[in-house]
Write a structure and sequence with these properties.
The protein is α/β, with parallel strands linked by helices. It is built from ten helices and ten strands. Strands 5-6-7-3-8-9-10 form a seven-stranded mixed sheet, sandwiched between helices. A three-stranded antiparallel sheet has the order 2-1-4, with helices on one face. Helix 4 packs across helix 5 and helix 6 runs parallel beside helix 7. The radius of gyration is 21 Å and the shape is globular.
Length: about 325
């Protein structure tokens, strides 16, 4: 049976322009920008957990904001299920239909909540807008129970809760509109280790019970290995490898993927990661993006950028053997 796709991304690009100084304008310097996303393409299967990993600055959070229309892409297309309309080309009012289906969980559990609103006030507004039913408080309590909180938290404010409890409220707010895909941007990075595993287990339980898709953005490979079904690796705004979890961790094909796996701290031996020089934010005009840091680099790598092959798994073959 063919796999059903809930979200399809095609060549999404986003460049943040850099402002020129006055003297640069006088000299006629051509303005350049930071390429956050460069023709990003992949798909999210229904009912799956897809992890997007990579170093800070590789474009993970920008991608999440583009998919939820918090940032506007410069070009590209996003399609939801069988809909034939590009979500990125819709007006704000037209996108409202899809907003409830695609919800985001933010990294900072405190900053994502209004400190002047209680938990009930936070959940009440989306329930009134989208569900428009009676018994709003009962619905709010039911959703709190889904995320492991009791009715006692209904009238608490963010400063009266711990980081893990705040993140549960954020997850509850996303669930009020019955989404079909959750985009979680580093949902546990601001929490302590013992709380992280509880939140991850909660997300996995919600995903399985409600049969929703989860796009998990993380820099922690341990988290990706624990919860994800598939892995997408990003480097300087591009997708460089796309594989199922088992294949990725057993036999990564991209040297950057190897570097990420080797860089994970281990108790049993010394860290053997080979990170090399830090990447520059301005992308080279030609050649492989990873060439300056790659231990397998040859002259051909600096001349021609390897294509991303079609099919699953997808990977950039940059080893010229």
């Amino acid at each position: 049976m063919a796999e059903k796709t809930i979200l399809s991304l095609h060549d999404i690009s986003k460049i943040f322009p850099l402002r020129l100084a006055f003297w640069q304008k006088l000299l006629g310097v051509t303005p350049r920008g930071i390429t956050a996303l460069d023709k990003v393409s992949f798909s999210v299967p229904e009912g799956s957990i897809v992890g997007v990993i990579g170093e800070s600055g590789c474009g993970k959070t920008t991608l999440a904001k583009v998919l939820t229309r918090l940032e506007n892409a410069d070009s590209g297309e996003v399609y939801y299920k069988h809909e034939d309309r590009n979500l990125l080309a819709l007006t704000s009012s037209e996108f409202q239909k899809f907003r409830r289906r695609i919800q985001m969980i933010f990294q900072n559990p405190y900053g994502a909540l209004n400190p002047r609103l209680s938990t009930f006030q936070t959940l009440k507004e989306p329930l009134e807008i989208y569900k428009k039913g009676t018994g709003i408080e009962e619905q709010a309590i039911h959703i709190l129970n889904m995320v492991g909180l009791t009715a006692d938290y209904l009238h608490r404010y963010p400063h009266e809760m711990s980081g893990g409890q705040r993140q549960r409220v954020n997850i509850a707010r996303a669930l009020t509109v019955d989404p079909e895909i959750l985009i979680a941007d580093e949902p546990v990075s601001a929490l302590d280790v013992s709380t992280q595993i509880n939140i991850l287990n909660l997300l996995k339980e919600i995903q399985q019970k409600n049969n929703i898709a989860l796009l998990l953005i993380t820099h922690d490979l341990g988290i990706a290995k624990y919860i994800c079904d598939r892995i997408i690796v990003m480097y300087l705004g591009e997708v460089v490898e796309w594989s199922d979890k088992d294949t990725f961790f057993k036999k990564p094909l991209h040297p950057y993927s190897e570097m990420l796996i080797e860089s994970v701290p281990r108790f049993e031996d010394k860290n053997s990661g080979k990170a090399g020089a830090l990447p520059k934010k301005i992308k080279p005009d030609k050649g492989c993006l990873f060439a300056p840091r790659c231990p397998y680099v040859i002259s051909a790598c600096r001349e021609k950028r390897p294509p991303l092959k079609d099919g699953f798994p997808k990977v950039r073959f940059i080893r010229h053997l």
